UniProtKB/TrEMBL annotation:
<protein>
    <recommendedName>
        <fullName>Heavy-metal chelation domain-containing protein</fullName>
    </recommendedName>
</protein>
């Protein structure tokens, strides 16, 4: 079963019989922004889809979605999205899991307040802190460069913080304008397709950005599990789904539901951890 099919099965399994018959999509919209929350950060494009079914779910968009397709969804039973595009399926499942009665209690939660720049740095330090814990849990492997980290989905701020705890950080991304460029800290950004062939050489993998909506997260979890490399997932896409990743192979999940750090005001970071070292 694919990861998105597992996600849908999990989300629908949380519904009562009455809910499964009555829940409809009440809102759907896209947001597009260019963002550079700090002088240390790269400028990147963020395009995401929000779906409301009582509560809101989100998916970053890796393909074009037409306004007429979103308009058609509103007022329909949520199940019409089962055969929709991947971002729509993710956002609908995420919205289903967003209801407090269906959510998983996090191991820790931090509330971020202040400017987008302040929250961006705070978020990066949380990711680095949880990665440090994952590195401590990693089992020694003879062909592994101990302490090395792969960053999948580039954030310069997160990369900077990872360099404080690892002598080797490599970055991977599918966004072509970034590929083969270097961050200000000197890290070369390689194409995301190069990750799997070298994944076994890392001590930990940090997955950020659109790994679910680009349909790459499942293979990362599979390969990392086989190589006993702990995976730390930072999830804005599918933040309400993300706690389940711990059961599907992730060591730690850092989930950030709407409103994201790039908006001023209060944001929430929820942390879910799997006890013990990664095993398969």
């Amino acid at each position: 079963m694919s990861l998105i099919d597992s996600i849908w099965s999990t989300a629908e399994g949380l519904l009562s019989d009455e809910e499964s018959q009555e829940l409809v999509i009440t809102g759907a919209w896209r947001t597009v922004l260019w963002l550079r929350p700090s002088r240390r950060e790269i400028t990147f494009k963020a395009e995401y889809l929000v779906i409301t079914i009582e509560y809101q779910g989100c998916s970053f968009v890796a393909q074009d979605i037409l306004d007429k397709d979103l308009q058609w969804l509103v007022g329909k039973h949520y199940s019409v999205a089962r055969q929709a595009s991947l971002p729509v399926r993710i956002a609908v499942a995420d919205a289903l899991c967003a209801h407090p009665s269906r959510s998983i209690t996090p191991d820790a939660e931090e509330l971020l307040d202040g400017s987008p720049e302040e929250k961006a740095l705070w978020r990066a330090r949380i990711v680095a802190r949880e990665t440090a814990a994952a590195l401590r849990s990693a089992q020694p492997i003879s062909n592994r460069d101990d302490g090395s980290v792969a960053l999948v989905g580039v954030s310069a701020l997160i990369a900077d913080e990872l360099l404080h705890l690892s002598r080797r950080v490599e970055a991977f991304d599918l966004y072509r304008p970034l590929v083969n460029s270097r961050l200000r800290n000197g890290i070369l950004i390689r194409h995301g397709s190069k990750l799997l062939e070298s994944l076994h050489t890392f001590s930990a993998v940090v997955v950020t950005g659109m790994a679910l909506s680009t349909n790459t997260l499942q293979q990362i979890l599979i390969n990392a599990g086989a190589a006993r490399v702990p995976v730390v997932v930072y999830a804005q896409t599918g933040a309400n789904i993300a706690p389940w990743y711990v059961r599907w192979g992730a060591q730690t999940v850092i989930a950030e539901p709407l409103p994201f750090y790039n908006f001023q005001g209060l944001s929430s970071i929820r942390i879910y951890r799997r006890a013990g070292p990664p095993t398969r």
